[in-house]
Amino acid sequence: MTEQKGKMVLSMFMITAGYHYDSWTMPGSRAEELGYADLIIDMAKKAEAAKLDSLFFGDIYEAGKIPGADPTVSGHYEPITSLSVVSQHTSRIGLIGTASTTFCAPYNVARQFAGLDTLSNGRAGWNIVTSVTGNENFGIESMPPSIERYRRASEFVDVVTALWDSWADDAVVADRERGIWADPERIRPIAHRGEFYSVHGPINMRRPPQGRPILVQAGSSDAGIELGSRVADCIYTAQPERQEAIDFYADYKKRVAAKGRDPAHVKILPGLVPVVGRTRGEAKDLLDLLGSHVRMDAGRYILGRRLKMDLTELDLDRQIPAEWFLSPEEETNSRYLIFRDLSINKGLTLRELIIEHSRGHGHLWLGGTTSEVADTMVDWFEAGACDGFSLNAAFVPGGVDLICDLLVPELQSRGYFREEYQGTTLREHLGLPRPPAWDRQAADEANGG
Question: Of 246, 321, 349, 427, which sees the most CB atoms within 10 A?
Fold first, then answer.
């Protein structure tokens, strides 16, 4: 009998309106509460009770073309403030939030996530994004080219991690007799001068409990993979096809190893939208119910924005003409290429594409019994397609309940997920080593002192 690979990593995306488009219009949703604390506190407590590794707040920096119309992907919750609230109502689950390297400053981001890590006793993670929209809200005439955004992001991350490392672990001495709270000899400037940033440092707060909060990245372009394989601890990715996920996983781990890093210390987590039922009929009824709430006019518009094309006059029961799509060489965005393939190679009509987009947004979605969905998750895990999953509740709160009350216990019963937390920090949950602290004696010796 083949030995089991190990335990999965399971994170939950905090899409508070439900990941399935228009599921917020269903009776029983908590749409009226979006933006308030009780909803996210309840979701976080549910996820922690299921022993999930982490929860994750995405973010965007604009209100959308029709502000307020679609709550599914809108930034109702600013990550740092929201996670700070959640940190005080939970004690173990990891807390991952997004901050943009295009619209933020490294010193502020370093302080925010160091602060969150300290307030939560070592549970913080930073999801690194370069952003693709929102420039008009920051006085930027147009978005910089992708390659420039990633060069900036690479330097940005180096500055942030250097700031986290600018205090030794033992810098805080609280010496009442000498009147010194932290030893100045154990704190150093970073004196960074680069292409985009000049940051003297040091940071003005103690080293975070994890040494460095977890770094998460989701870019699937060559530039995104280059950054992620160099710095990230977790990779979020859209991989709806098993074999392509296996190929992506193997290639990514090779790139990590080529940079001198341990591939086992970089967790690759495809997005998954599970719609589970106690029976197949129950799962099908739920999928049909979710599908019945999709607004085709809005779905047409949202898909058109993703594909960068005008779909307003195309009949719902026709395919998008192949010539409307850019070639893979012209458009490298992974979600674009997924829907290009579904249309051109799989023959889906516009109506079918809208439903597919509504369910998974390009991620894998699974509908079936708890056992059937778990079978697929285990198969992907054992086949080397992933180290776990980023779970997206199709609807809220019911979808969160299905994940935590049905799906996770099934994985636990099979031995693929923990039944109790073994550690207290996010690094411990993920089995990742703590980065070594700056040591003044070692630094002096390295400099010949």
Answer: 427
